[in-house]
Amino acid sequence: MDHDANNHPGSLIEGLSKVCAMEHYAYITTYELSFPLLNKLDCRLVCLPEIFSKVRHSILLTKHSPYRKAINNVIQKLKESGVLKNIKIQTMGIAVAQPDLKEDTISGVELGTVYCVFLILISGALVSVLILAAENIYHLLEQKYLMNRHPLKTNYLS
Question: What residue ranges carry the coiled-coil annotation (predicted)?
Answer without folding.
Answer: none
